[in-house]
Amino acid sequence: MALRILRPLCSFRIAHSRAPCLSRAFSLHRCLSTAKSTGDDNASARALQSLGKSPKQQIRNFTEEALLHLRKTVLDRSFASPYHSLAKLPKARLEQLVEEFETTFSEKCSAYYENPSSHSLQLRDISLAEYFRPHLDAAPPIILSVYLNMYPTDLAEHRGYKNKTEIATAILTELFHQHCIGDLLHSLPEQEKIDTNWDIGNPAEWFPQARKMKRKIIMHVGPTNSGKTHNSLKAFAAAKSGYYAGPLRLLAREIYERFEGQGIHCNLITGEEVVPSLDEYGSVSNLSSGTIEMIPLHKKMDICIIDEIQMLADPTRGSAWTNAVLGVQAKEVHLCGEESAVALVKEMVKSTGDELVIKQYKRLGKLTMCQKPVGRLENLQKGDCLIAFSKRKILELKCRIEQSTSLKVGVIYGALPPEIRSQASAKFNSGEYDVLVASDAIGMGLNLKIKRIVFWSIMKFNGSDMVPLSVSATKQIAGRAGRFSADQGESEGLVTAFKSKDLRFLQLAMREPIKNVEKACIWPPSEFWVHYVSSFRSPLPLSEAVKKFEKSIGNRKLDNYFLSEFDHQLEILDLLLRNRLSKSLTIEDQLSLASVPLNLHFAPPVVVETALKFFECISRCESKTVFDFDFLHSSILSMEPSITGSSERVFDTLQALETNHKLVLVFMWLSQRWPTLFADKESANDIKTLIEKRISEELICLRRVAKKEKSGRRRR
């Protein structure tokens, strides 16, 4: 039924014993009509005063009556359409939810009636949209407008309301339904979902196409250097189609280069770049090596290798592993990693109905725990890898070792570009570098010929505190010593520490069994969020929707699963909201930007400012090149490395280059998703290569500067 020109409710005869007299309604309309013509911000307060004696008590009585009707509906579980799904929630939980709702609503009403003119929604501004899609913040003036006979007559007739209490109860029921939406998405069985298959407690059902398959899942589990990944890659090489999913770009590139070197066509797919491999007929290979986040869950394939499977318990990235295990459409799924993940995967497979085969491996070569600490830098030997956990400390140790010994030192740490880490690895393996100083970045990937792992420290910053290494991380790093090679066979690896107290910690940790991972990390994919945000009757920013979701689900017990940490992504979503960019971006675009490889919390100002410029480019649909964003240090990029400065100068230059490299990678990451907006990707790739060259030059220069500083101290 098409709505006619809407009339105020004062012309609609309603049967309500407490309805204010017609003259009072006319007085109200005079107040509001005057306000509309003059822009009077005090009209809401004057309208409230026009009710006569005790206006706040009148509206409070009216509101309480509507809340009583709502509570009765909840207790009787007599919800009408479209709210019948609320009856599926447990009675005790419903009662708890209605109490929460009443408390929140009453608090908002009390604040509103203290100073109605300060509210963001004035009575004169209430539109039809507010009645169709009310939201809790706007509820007090909306309920007041109902009491003051402002609800449109035609809408009341259309919906069959007999009096104002029914109207207010209907509005409160809608608001209560919004309050319960998180519980509904978590608790209801699949057939009760609202146009979705999103049962938060059963993520296996998020992937219906994979559930139509009878997959064979083969777990290859064992310690570091046991050959588990090597054996799965044999099956991968023989397959017609497949995907190797690794935790790092570096590892994905290593597998890609290995296969290409063997004459097996294999594509490289990471967030920043896609390198297709073409056969002699120009056809793109059906085998790909890439990062876990880029795995094509929509594509059918013969085989998929998911490396470092224990990462599914990682609180920040683990959901990518969980989604891959549950959702990849591969006939064979090979899971490689620690034995600690076996029990959890068994539970997950129960919900998927797949076949599970477990293959256990033993370490190839002996790993020996040394009985004495190294004690002095002069006691380091060729083939050693010294482990430290901050970039500053790693660079300082490189200088100190080269000052106090004749050893040539390479460095590997997380902020270094993967290409530079790969170069350092190759130079160490060839003997060009005698010693490595590295972070836990060596724990995954990088086939290194390390004879002895030496822990400079066992304490690591976790983002807020200095904490000891976990048993799992300790064994992962220690296991890099004595790597097996096809040419030389097994080799013994040694593990020790620089200090005595750390050696005792290592000895205990190496004897400890690795604890089973108990739960897998989950986070709903973008399709869920499109539905979830649209389920609210009033527009809600994505960042607020995420917070509501976390609040409603966070304290629930999820068998075998836990919700991912989303703090870094929320920082990006909040940045979009603060700068009014979210309104011009789709939910999908916002979710993509939330996944950009940046941690704004620890980022320097130039990174945050440049990221915002990137996001504005998308919001405004402006096409730009990497040179249009003014973050490149042209003077540093064009300068020649010099040994005339200090090691501190080299540290600062490296920091600037690494920041530039990170932002260029973000540009390339965005160009993969918005290729028409982030244009001239070839130039960005050239800049990336130039920055990597400059980083290599500065690291070489650091050795010369360290030697110069050493000789300078001797002369003094």
From TrEMBL:
InterPro entries, sorted: DEXQc_SUV3, Helicase_C-like, P-loop_NTPase, RNA-DNA_Helicase, SUV3_C, Suv3_DEXQc
Main location, first listed in the record: mitochondrion
Enzyme kind, highest EC tier: hydrolase
Intracellular or extracellular location(s): Mitochondrion
Species for this entry: Clavispora lusitaniae (strain ATCC 42720)
Domain of life (superkingdom): Eukaryota
Gene3D superfamilies per the UniProt record, alphabetical: 1.20.272.40, 1.20.58.1080, P-loop containing nucleotide triphosphate hydrolases
GO biological process per UniProt: Group I intron splicing; mitochondrial DNA replication; mitochondrial RNA 3'-end processing; mitochondrial RNA catabolic process
Record keyword Nucleotide-binding present: yes
GO molecular function terms listed in the Swiss-Prot or TrEMBL record: ATP binding; exoribonuclease II activity; RNA helicase activity
UniProt-listed Enzyme Commission number(s): 3.6.4.13
UniProt protein name: ATP-dependent RNA helicase SUV3, mitochondrial
Gene Ontology CC entries for this record: mitochondrial degradosome
Taxonomic lineage of the native organism: Eukaryota, Fungi, Dikarya, Ascomycota, Saccharomycotina
Domain Helicase C-terminal: 372-522
